[in-house]
Write a structure and sequence with these properties.
The structure holds three protein chains of three kinds.
Chain A: H1 2-26, H2 31-41, H3 46-57, H4 65-77, H5 92-127, H6 132-144, H7 149-163, H8 183-220, H9 223-230, H10 235-272, H11 278-287, H12 291-319, H13 325-328
Helix pairs in contact in A: 1-12, 2-3, 5-8, 5-10, 5-12, 6-8, 7-8, 7-10, 8-10, 9-10, 10-11, 10-12, 11-12
Chain B: H1 8-15, E1 25-35, E2 46-57, E3 62-66, H2 73-81, E4 88-93, E5 96-97, H3 103-110, E6 113-116, H4 130-140, H5 149-159, H6 166-169, H7 178-190, E7 196-200, H8 208-225, E8 228-233, H9 236-242, E9 247-252, E10 255-261, H10 262-267, H11 272-279, H12 322-326, E11 332-334, E12 339-341, H13 349-355
Parallel strand pairs in B: 3-8, 3-9, 6-7, 7-8
Antiparallel strand pairs in B: 1-2, 1-4, 4-5, 9-10, 10-12, 11-12
Chain C: H1 2-13, H2 15-37, H3 68-104, H4 106-121, H5 124-134, H6 140-148, H7 153-167, H8 170-177, H9 182-219, H10 229-238, H11 249-277, H12 279-285
Chain lengths: 329, 361, 287
């Protein structure tokens, strides 16, 4: 069953690669033909132009489609995602490698913080349901929970970096700093990361609040909670060892899942704050029609989602003794 | 309650004797199994919800099926009604095998067998009116001409005793009582002129005071329209009342363990399980004690997997012998008793029963 | 009409429901009639850049002196018509696939669910972006189709699980035994029971599509073809660094406010619909 699960994940990855490949190749305005024509217009002789296109995409544009497809897959497995068009001579893999830490940092921190905030507030909201706190938080969460982060990002940027200039407008860290494990650099990283992280949190914690609140409420309604109360177990103890574990447990799956989706959502936040993570890279790759880079990033983001799916399943299995892999199917 | 006469076409259809038909429906060694462990490791395990049941249902006949919950009586009823297919065995409609029917023929023939559910509250579509509920089958199967649909559905509502019809046509199920709903359910079944109705605990969720009228309505439909019934119930008294003069089948753990004339099977059971069922009926006179003496040895659920040899009732049977745990008894015919019983000890039953204090009065 | 009266009594009992409904009706009004108020296009005065709100410019002007208010009013049509179309496409695909999958089961179910899993796995914005970058998108219909490409997955799953539970109901079994036919049972018996759910999701799908399209315009990935709120955001961000000047606050805030207002009232209105469709809550209003 575990093997089947992993097999499904691999199948998904293969489907992703296939989709991106054919999407980009078969659509009108095929990037390789476009590039070839650009070269030809620049007066480059045909054979050399073909060679160059082949170098750029890692694929021979004149071989049959299935051959291109197979060599694309083969190159992908070997870790060769082609060479960027907008940064000539730089491999897609190394570009991604440079951008990834920034996204992992901001996305990771905001995921953790929004989860913690949502769970904490959600518990309070459930215990004081219909109180003034919940009456404000529930509609607010419902509003914030679907709001895309490009709106929260724009608002935060405008308020905190334009109207009152408390935070920097862009970049991952201040100029003239020496990247490394030193205090001024780390401080600057945090300072620059604050607004992007804030944007994610603002558009995320509402969802956690609502989920945690409803989970806690349904847990509180269970018979074993009334049972525990009737035994005279103190309510703090009940909260800690009866309610919280059962209410939080189902959230962990969502937690792992949203990691993958936040990678996808990073396009907007990182573009707004010119934050050099993979989302920003994806944005610039799109504006410059840098197809190898777009394909590579899309594959990476999707694989992240697929892998986090897999981890979420296994995680759940580990955490909840009642669930077997069969139930997940 | 007005009891309208049948229209000519109907009496003609039902009056014609079905002498050429061997039976409305026949089951030959029909089984229903479910796979229980789906894991890749370990042996495949099957749960036998129904094991090799054979049965002939004749036109206009009533067959009561009794047994505890989980004995397979509802599964049997659903297979008869074609709600889901059997895993193995052969099903014959009017002597013709279902396996050899085309789709259209199957659809046409199978609608002659209808199902009445236990819970009238969930058997009717919640957002459709009574009129719409009856209209759909009449229209889809073109049971009558388009312009006669409305008069036909009125006729049916009157037939099941929902009159004046105007008070019911536009009602939604939630506006009706349990008894009224069960009448609508019967009317809906009648839209397709069924030969056989499977009634699965059809009155057990209706208020006791209303049961009698529903049961007599069903009986009247049998007499006037020649509809056969498979009457599934856990209540021996109901079975005895409804299938009087016809047959009763006792099921245990997916198998038929005793079948024969209703009166004989219920008052003079020959299988230990049937006898325990009879003994479990509370007695009217409290001074005799609530129940007679016969009890099962254990109340454990029967093992429905095919892994244990021997009689499936053996673990519970108060009269169990060595052979019972090694060899499963066949359902055999006893001409002197006018019935079939599946028990090794049937020939010595009078002695056993006497020894256990079970009187035969 | 009984239903209308019930809806009215629900809206009247909670002011938030009523306000949400009024806002939605107002937006619908803008979408239908908005452009008619400005037959000559967006009024502008190139000498009056980033003007603050006034009688002449109710929401100020943008970087080129165009009226912000007029752009919001005119832009509503494109934004909402694309969103409504996309929501309808989403519903159509999601409901059809969900019903087919849940009702027929077996191989149909397996294939549809595998595709759904796959669609749900693809990160939505990157997918939209990569398609928008490859396929030339112009006009509301292709835009709506693009937005509905991967928005139906969750709906299809939810519909499937509803169908699976409805399929077990006795009245559906009765319909099968009556041999009423799969088409009738799936679409005339099961589907009407899911209408409340479908209607509520239609409204939420509209907001989802609004987010999607404004996001694409905001990133500047789809060609700009009409005045709309997403284009306004894009200009506010990209044109001459408008976002970096506090004086552009009204130009920036107007489309944001319009989008958020639409979202808030949609969520609230779908709550009202929930009360409307839920028989237990319904009785609380019926007096």
């Amino acid at each position: 069953m575990l093997l089947k699960r992993i097999g499904m994940a691999i199948l998904m990855i293969w489907m992703t690669l296939t989709t991106t490949f054919f999407l980009v190749r078969l659509m009108p305005g095929n990037p390789m033909t476009l590039k070839l024509h650009t070269f030809l217009k620049q007066g480059i002789p045909y054979p050399i132009a073909v060679k160059r296109v082949q170098m750029l995409f890692g694929i021979n544009a004149h071989s049959p489609m299935w051959q291109q497809y197979l060599s694309y897959l083969w190159e992908f497995i070997r870790g060769n995602l082609g060479i960027s068009i907008q940064y000539p001579g730089t491999s897609v893999l190394s570009l991604i490698g440079k951008a990834l830490p920034w996204t992992v940092f901001t996305v990771g921190v905001s995921l953790f913080l929004s989860f913690a905030i949502g769970v904490a507030l959600g518990t309070i909201g459930a215990y004081r349901r219909n109180g003034i706190f919940d009456r404000i938080m529930s509609p607010l969460s419902a509003l914030l929970n679907g709001v895309p982060n490009y709106l929260t990002g724009t608002i935060l940027l405008f308020i905190f970096a334009v109207v009152v200039i408390w935070f920097p407008q862009q970049g991952p860290y201040g100029t003239g700093l020496n990247p490394g494990f030193n205090l001024p650099y780390l401080g600057s990283v945090l300072y620059h990361g604050a607004l992007p992280i804030g944007s994610y949190i603002l558009s995320q914690f509402g969802g956690w609040y609502l989920l945690m609140k409803s989970n806690t409420l349904s847990t509180l309604g269970q018979d074993y909670i009334s049972g525990a109360k009737s035994f005279g177990i103190p309510s703090g103890k009940i909260m800690q060892s009866y309610v919280a574990p059962n209410a939080i447990l189902p959230l962990f799956t969502n937690l792992v899942l949203s990691l993958g989706f936040m990678f996808g959502g990073s396009v907007f936040v990182e573009t707004i704050f010119s934050y050099p993570g993979i989302g920003y890279l994806f944005g610039t790759a799109t504006s410059n029609r840098d197809y190898p880079l777009m394909e590579g990033l899309f594959a990476l983001i999707t694989i992240t989602v697929i892998v986090s799916n897999l981890i979420a399943d296994l995680f759940y299995l580990k955490l909840d003794p009642r669930i077997t892999l069969e139930d997940l199917n | 309650m007005s009891e309208p006469m049948l229209s000519n076409s109907e009496s003609a259809r039902f009056a014609s004797p079905v002498a050429s038909d061997p039976s409305v429906l026949s089951l030959r060694n029909v089984s229903k199994t479910y796979r229980v462990n789906k894991s890749l490791v370990g042996k495949k395990k099957f749960l036998w919800a129904l094991k090799e049941v054979s049965l002939d249902i004749h036109a206009g006949e009533i067959i009561a099926v009794v047994g505890e919950s989980g004995c397979g009586k509802s599964t049997l009823g659903r297979i008869i009604a074609g709600a889901f297919p059997a895993t193995s065995g052969e099903i014959l409609l009017q002597g013709q095998s279902l396996a050899h029917m085309g789709r259209a023929e199957f659809r046409r023939e199978m609608r002659g067998i209808q199902l009445v559910h236990q819970d009238p509250y969930s058997a009717l579509h919640p957002t459709k009116t009574v009129e719409a509920i009856l209209h759909d089958p009449l229209r889809i199967h073109r049971m009558v001409d388009k312009n006669k649909i409305s008069s036909r559905l009125r006729e049916l509502l009157e037939l099941v005793g929902l009159s004046p019809v105007e008070n019911f046509l536009q009602k939604y199920p939630y506006q009706l009582s349990g008894g009224q709903r069960q009448r609508v359910v019967l009317a809906r079944a009648l839209t397709v002129n069924p030969r056989l109705i499977v009634a699965d605990e059809a009155v057990s969720m209706i208020d006791v005071s209303m049961r009698q009228t529903i049961l007599s309505l069903m009986k009247r439909l049998q007499k006037e329209l020649g509809i056969a019934y498979v009457f599934i119930t856990h209540d021996l008294a109901l079975a005895r009342y409804f299938a009087q003069g016809y047959r009763t089948i006792v099921m245990y753990a997916g198998q038929v363990i005793e079948q024969g004339p209703t009166e004989a099977v219920i008052t003079d059971p020959r299988h230990p399980y049937s006898a325990i069922l009879k003994a479990a009926v509370p007695r009217a006179n409290p001074e005799e004690g609530l129940f007679t003496g016969l009890r099962p040895r254990t109340t454990d659920l029967p093992d429905l997997t095919n892994t244990v040899p021997g009689c499936r009732f053996a673990p519970r049977c108060p009269f169990v012998q060595d052979q019972c745990t090694h060899r499963a008894p066949e359902l055999s015919h006893y001409a002197n008793l006018h019935r079939d019983v599946a028990c090794h000890r049937t020939p010595e039953w009078p002695a056993i029963a006497a020894a256990s204090g079970e009187s035969h009065a | 009409m009984n239903a209308l009266r019930l809806l009215w009594s629900i809206l009247r009992k909670k002011p938030s429901y009523l306000i949400a409904t009024i806002i939605l009706v107002f937006f619908a009004f803008l979408a239908i009639f908005g452009p008619m108020f400005y037959p000559n296009g967006v009024p502008s005065n190139p000498a009056d850049l980033y003007a603050p709100p006034s009688w002449q410019w109710p929401l100020g002007t943008d970087y080129a002196g165009n009226s912000t208010f007029a752009q919001i009013v005119i832009g509503a049509r494109y934004v909402l018509s694309v969103a409504a179309l996309a929501a309808v496409f989403t519903m159509f695909i999601g409901v059809t696939l969900g019903v087919l999958s849940g009702f027929f089961g077996g191989a149909v179910d397996t294939v549809i669910m595998r595709i759904t899993d796959f669609i749900l796995t693809l990160p939505s914005y990157p997918l939209l972006i990569i398609i928008a970058a490859t396929v030339p998108i112009s006009g509301p219909v292709p835009m709506a189709l693009l937005l509905s490409i991967n928005s139906w997955g969750g709906l299809a799953r939810a519909i499937r699980s509803q169908v699976l539970s409805l399929k077990k109901q006795d009245y559906i079994e009765a319909a099968r035994v009556l041999r009423l036919g799969s088409g009738h049972i799936a679409f005339r018996q099961i589907m009407p029971l899911m209408m409340p759910y479908i209607v509520m999701h239609l409204i939420l799908a509209v907001t989802g599509a609004v987010y999607g399209e404004t996001g694409l315009f905001f990133l500047g990935i789809v060609p700009i073809e009409a005045t709309n709120w997403g284009v306004m955001l894009n200009y506010a961000y990209s044109q001459a660094g408008a976002i970096y000047s506090p004086s552009s606050v009204f130009y920036l805030a107007s489309p944001l406010a319009a989008i958020l207002l639409l979202q808030l009232s949609s969520v609230t209105f779908s709550d009202a619909l929930n009360d409307f469709f839920n028989p237990q809550l319904r009785s609380a209003y019926a007096d």
